[in-house]
Specification:
Layout lengths: L1 H38 L21 H12 L2 H5 L6 H34 L5 H26 L10 H26 L9 H27 L28 H5 L6 H28 L6 H27 L6 H30 L19
Helix pairs in contact: 1-4, 1-6, 1-11, 5-6, 6-7, 6-11, 7-9, 7-11, 9-10, 10-11
């Protein structure tokens, strides 16, 4: 009887794990679609935020004409896309519509199984609290997404770069917090070291990477790649001359960044310098802890970190050079998603360390199934 009950509990736990993994896949897809939406200039094609009525796209020619007419009233159409055909409008509308529709799918995929699992008592109190935080974070991300879009519908032809970067970080946060929940559920006792120094080094590296991702969002929002699409120099100089002129360091240039080229130069310069720092510090971090042999799983993630770092740096250079031929949508999207995977490796390591420090015992595992009975306490 007891064996049957344990097998039933393990089966239910697998369902919950599968649900969380599906959620990760959907959030990953949403971030990818959001990146393509931004890089194709599609984010301002839908000028209203209709949570329910906006579920269906225009179904008739008249409905399409009405949507197109609304878009024609935006600064983006007047200043950049004047003369755009209806078929071209449908292309950019598709990406923004898919971005919003995908968000609705994620809501349904979360809500319905959550109610079922909660009703059957398959969710621990800790997991329920974590999922409530996740819902709040997702709601803030969605709401800020509309705030971001609204910033490009009145006075400027593009969304505000600061708001875009914030929205990007919020989207990353939803994915990373869900990943943290999943990893903590699968390895409830951690498989990482509990040493404070290792933890401090990891947090410092993670903080630098988050700052770099914010700068990446600023690069995209300002379309800064078009200004200096060369490497390793910036149009023949290691640092643009205007950055050395103190007269440019004004509040107005930081706020009204699209009035001059100062912020574009500063953001791209900082993005490059931070990348070089990440290479040096990230390589040192890898070398320092690669022989720790805490557990097979920890060693694999630690190795994956350095592999993804090399790939990310390469993609960054290729994306920058790609601006010489126009907007590099494919490279830019890949650069964004590898950044998400890169920061994910650090979040997984951080979660393992935190679980090991929280738990009275640290479990080192070779396979997920070896702690199957403890996955959902």
């Amino acid at each position: 009887m007891q064996q049957d009950m344990n097998e039933k509990q393990n089966r239910l736990n697998r369902y919950v794990r599968g649900w969380l993994i599906l959620g990760l896949v959907l959030v990953f897809g949403q971030i990818l679609i959001g990146g393509v939406t931004r890089l194709t200039g599609s984010g301002l094609s839908i000028t209203k935020w209709e949570i329910i009525t906006g579920t269906l796209p225009p179904m008739t020619t008249e409905a399409w004409e009405q949507e197109f007419a609304l878009y024609k009233e935006t600064p983006q159409y007047a200043l950049i896309n004047d003369g755009m055909s209806l078929s071209e409008f449908k292309f950019i509308y598709f990406w923004e519509y898919l971005h919003r529709l995908w968000a609705r799918w994620m809501g349904l995929v979360f809500l319905i199984p959550f109610l079922i699992f909660w009703r059957k008592g398959m969710l621990s109190g800790r997991l329920i609290r974590q999922l409530c935080i996740l819902v709040g974070l997702a709601a803030v991300t969605a709401s800020f997404g509309w705030i971001m879009v609204a910033s490009g519908l009145i006075e400027r032809p593009w969304v505000n770069a600061y708001k875009l970067s914030t929205h990007l970080l919020l989207g990353f946060s939803v994915f990373l917090y869900l990943l943290h929940i999943l990893v903590g559920a699968i390895w409830p006792h951690g498989v990482g070291p509990s040493r404070s120094k290792h933890h401090r080094n990891l947090v410092a590296l993670l903080s630098l990477l988050v700052f770099q991702i914010f700068l990446g969002g600023m690069m995209s929002g300002m379309k800064a790649g078009f200004a200096y699409p060369t490497w390793p120099d910036m149009h023949g100089a290691w640092m643009p001359a205007m950055l050395g002129d103190v007269s440019h360091w004004t509040v107005e240039n930081f706020v009204d960044y699209d009035e001059t080229g100062f912020m574009v130069a500063l953001v791209q310069f900082m993005h490059r310098i931070t990348a070089y720092l990440l290479i040096i510090i990230g390589l040192r971090y890898y070398i320092r802890y690669r022989t720790a042999h805490v557990s097979p799983w920890y060693d694999r993630i630690h190795t994956l970190w350095i592999i993804l770092l090399i790939i990310q740096v390469t993609l960054g250079i290729l994306t920058l050079l790609g601006f010489q031929r126009g907007m590099p949508v494919a490279l830019g999207s890949a650069h964004q998603m590898v950044a998400l995977l890169l920061v994910s490796t650090l979040v997984v390591q951080w979660t393992w360390i935190m679980e090991a420090r929280r738990s009275p015992r640290s479990v080192q595992v070779d396979e997920v199934g070896s702690v199957g009975q403890d996955t959902m306490r």
